[in-house]
Amino acid sequence: MAVKIVTDSLSDITDDLAQELGITVVPLYVRFGGEVFRDRVEITTEQFYHRLVHGTDFPTTTQPPSGDFLEVYKKLAGETDEILVITVSSKLSGTYESALQARGMMEGKCRIEVIDSQTVAMGLGLIVISTAKVAKGGANLDELADFARQAKERSHAIMSFDTLKYLAKGGRIGKAQALLGAMLSVKPILTVKDGEVVPLTRVRSRAAGIDYLYNFVAGFSNIEELAVEHATTPQEADELVERLGSLFPKERIYRSTVSPVLGTHTGPHVLSVSVLEAPTS
């Protein structure tokens, strides 16, 4: 029986891709006032960003409770005896802890490995996608866990922000705090390092930010997987994919939208690229 792969909604893997690769996605939760929604299940990205920009309530987010993971484990245990779970960075969310707690409730019914990706968005998504492809080839749980841990070291994601106010409001700003006092005209570029959000640089304009994303990808000589994400600017994402086509086959570039839970912290105008380097032989 093939190993089943589980991740959370902060991987930003599209529903179609999850279905195609047999990946189970456990959603986090976003709350507006008294209303609670499962990420991308009970609220679409379009509905979410409309409320984020035009609504009066600022959203908050929470990890899935361990019961949500337990439900998934029990269901998958009927189909396999090995499950690999790859979660968002434990420094950004309690999701990893929930996944671990649920494993402890399974009482040996199924062997489960839980890995902290130490990243987020398609930085996580590309690790999961690459691991799921290997799983389809028949690798066992130990082989897949090793593969995923190695893939963590090969995954790199950067995001171009319009503003850091959402990250500051949501309490996830980490070491990017230093950029908060920067002039309003400056556009910050952030990355994830050792599981935390850290500043890379700042640029003068949106166009310069997009150039920076392009040049970041151009700096890799051997790319296995590539992804472009946006929140509310699909045209910018399209244009960036076109440009990146000179570096990597554009039909193989994954396109995704930043999920509501992540969008609570990034805001509506984030644009991101994620690179999974090919392993060195």
Please explain how this structure is put together:
The chain is 37% helix and 26% strand. It is of the alpha/beta class and 281 residues long. It folds into 2 domains: 4-153, Rossmann fold; 155-277, Hypothetical Protein Tm841, Chain: A,domain 3. The strands form 3 sheets. Strands 10-9-8-13-11-12 form a 6-stranded mixed sheet, sandwiched between helices. It has a 4-stranded parallel sheet with strand order 2-1-6-7, with helices on both faces. A 3-stranded antiparallel sheet has the order 4-3-5, covered by helices on one side. α3 packs across α4 and α8 (206-218) runs parallel beside α9. The longest helix has 16 residues, at 121-136. 47% of the residues are buried.
Q: What is this structure's SSE topology?
A:
Blueprint (H helix, E strand, L loop, with lengths): L3 E5 L6 H7 L1 E4 L2 E4 L2 E4 L6 H10 L5 E3 L3 H12 L4 E6 L7 H10 L6 E6 L4 H16 L4 H14 E6 L4 H5 L17 E7 L2 E8 L2 H13 L4 E8 L3 H11 L8 E5 L2 H7 L4 E7 L4
Parallel strand pairs: 1-2, 1-6, 6-7, 11-12
Antiparallel strand pairs: 3-4, 3-5, 8-9, 8-13, 9-10, 11-13
Helix pairs in contact: 3-4, 5-6, 8-9
